[in-house]
Design brief:
The complex is a heterodimer of chains A (226) and B (248). Chain A is mainly α and 226 residues long. Chain A contains 7 helices and 4 strands, in the order E-H-E-E-H-E-H-H-H-H-H. In chain A, the strands form 2 sheets. Chain A has a two-stranded antiparallel sheet with strand order 1-4. Chain A has a two-stranded antiparallel ribbon with strand order 2-3. In chain A, strand 2 and strand 3 form a beta hairpin. In chain A, helix 1 packs across helix 2 and helix 1 runs antiparallel to helix 3. The longest helix of chain A is centred in the middle third of the chain and has 16 residues. The radius of gyration of chain A is 27 Å and the shape is elongated. By secondary structure, chain B is of the alpha/beta class. Chain B has a single domain, classed as Spore Coat Polysaccharide Biosynthesis Protein SpsA, Chain A (Alpha-Beta Complex), CATH 3.90.550. Chain B is built from 6 helices and 12 strands. In chain B, the strands form 2 sheets. In chain B, strands 1, 2, 3, 4, 5, 6, 7, 8, 9 and 10 form a 10-stranded mixed sheet that branches. The longest helix of chain B is centred in the middle third of the chain and has 16 residues. Classes of the chains: A mainly alpha (226), B alpha/beta (248).
Chain lengths: 226, 248
């Protein structure tokens, strides 16, 4: 058999994330925390690994990565076609292993895999029954333990990055103006302006405005100094 | 592509007959977004050109994302096609709101959201004035559906979710931007789940269950769902206030 590999931009078959089909029989159902860590890793360090698809674009490995990529913006695809005889190397030109970011990515890569793994016993069993040889990957006691494991109650897990962070607090104060002079004076002091709106050709009317705390403190501090 | 400062897009499917007396009454200036195969049915219902999406784009998540991908305005409102009422909830009785005040309300709300650092805004989901809490005119950590505004394009809808994409989208915003902006003083009434058309083609009990299971795996304890009185209730559990500082 003639073996070849070509590195090329996304071809006609695989142009966007939508062309990558998830594996309906993925035996790793994933975990809430794993998904959260994966999001953090992609956001902080970018993509560290490739994903693997079959000749039809069906995902073999990387289902969660593709999910996360879709949610955090659709990255450009680089498709490398190979028959498995060559090792595909992803070279990050922006990273240097002597930098902390590269080291952190190395930890993130392993940790996301570790935390994000949750086998689906029923899927594994069905794969085995359909002829897949899984004996090399699970010793008999491990296999027995896995099939007898109860379902994880993932719904009780919370995501660390969704939690209220130290001192994080979102709140608001409403200020009511009783006459137009007070309103225009406040708009002047706080730098609030009317904005033109193109749809309908009219200008907006005053129903309320929001000003961020940083801007408010900036203005108040400026006034105090005077 | 349409490029006003704020785009107002109404998604509709197989409701050309009811649209003029439902959402069309409240959003006469909206751009209608429908499937290509329904071009003739919706032709002439608004002054604006139709925004036609491919026929195979169906479900909340895919359609909303298609709109965000094909409308270049930085601020986009997406409204459903089953609106039957618009109300202000701050009085003893719900006050009816009509155009052009509705447009002013939409503009003001999305600008408030942007100024507050939120990238997603919407309104009270209950149009019963008795459920309005005067001490909480704005909500910063819930989820919104119905008419909803999106600031920018930093997050994407999950294409797998044809029913509960809005819940997921709000949670994504809470994760990244920490807050959403929900103006509880106003609400839009829907003729929800009673009509043919719309998203009815995707809606089954089994499909709800599949999406809830997926969302629970994805968001864990931050999303609570339950079936009650023949429908489902989704509640987001994301704390955004430090305890003990609510009333100084």
């Amino acid at each position: 058999m003639k073996r070849k590999s070509t590195a090329a931009p996304a071809n006609g078959a695989l142009r966007s994330l939508a062309d990558l089909k998830p594996d309906p029989n993925n035996a790793n159902k994933g975990t809430t925390r794993g998904r959260a860590l994966l999001h953090t890793s992609i956001r902080e360090y970018g993509f560290g690994r490739s994903v693997l698809v079959d000749k039809h674009g069906q995902l073999i490995a990387g289902n969660k990565t593709v999910e996360a990529a879709g949610e955090s913006g659709a990255p450009e695809l680089v498709v490398v076609q190979t028959d498995g005889s060559q090792l595909v190397v992803v070279q990050r030109t922006d990273l240097d292993l002597s930098d902390s970011a590269a080291r952190e990515l190395a930890i993130a890569d392993n940790r996301v895999t570790e935390v994000g793994l949750a086998w689906e016993p029923a899927t594994l069993k069905s794969l085995q029954e359909s002829g897949a040889n899984l004996e090399d990957f699970f010793r008999p006691p491990e296999w027995a333990k896995l099939l007898n494991a109860s379902e994880d109650v993932v719904a009780d897990e919370t995501l660390p990055e969704m939690e209220c962070q130290p001192f994080e607090h979102h709140d608001y104060i409403m200020v009511v103006f009783r006459d137009s002079h007070a309103w225009t004076r406040a708009c002047d002091l706080l730098g609030i302006r009317r904005e033109g709106v193109t749809l309908g050709g009219r200008r907006k009317i005053g129903i309320g405005r929001v000003i961020g705390a940083d801007r408010l403190f900036e203005i108040l501090d400026g006034k105090r100094k005077k | 592509m349409i490029t006003p400062a704020i785009a107002l897009v109404c998604m509709s499917r197989r409701r050309a007959r009811t649209w003029p007396r439902q959402s069309g009454r409240f959003f006469p200036e909206a751009t209608l977004c429908v499937a290509e195969e329904e071009r003739d049915e919706y032709h002439g219902l608004t002054k604006r050109e139709l925004l036609l999406h491919p026929n195979n784009v169906t479900g909340i998540g895919p359609v909303r994302q298609w709109i965000l991908d094909h409308v270049s305005s930085p601020l986009v409102y997406m409204v459903p096609d089953d609106i039957v009422g618009a109300y202000g909830l701050t009085g003893t009785y719900a006050n009816h709101i009509a155009p052009p005040l509705i447009w002013d309300l939409l503009v003001n709300t999305i600008e408030c959201a942007e100024a507050a650092g939120a990238h997603l805004c919407g309104f009270n989901q209950a149009w019963d004035v008795r459920k309005f809490t005067p001490l909480q005119p704005f909500n910063l950590n819930g989820w919104v559906d119905g008419p909803m505004g999106v600031v920018g394009r930093e997050l994407r809808y999950d294409p797998k979710l044809k029913l509960h994409a809005d819940t997921d989208f709000a949670l994504q915003h809470l994760r990244k931007f920490r807050i959403i902006w929900q103006d509880n003083r106003f609400a839009f009434a829907h003729d929800r789940w009673k009509q043919a058309g719309g998203n009815a083609v995707n809606r089954t009990k089994a499909a709800h269950d599949v999406e809830f299971a997926y969302l629970h795996r994805k968001w864990g304890a931050h999303l609570r769902t339950r079936w009650a009185k023949g429908t489902f209730i989704s509640k987001i559990s994301v704390e955004r206030r430090q305890h003990g500082t609510d009333m100084l």
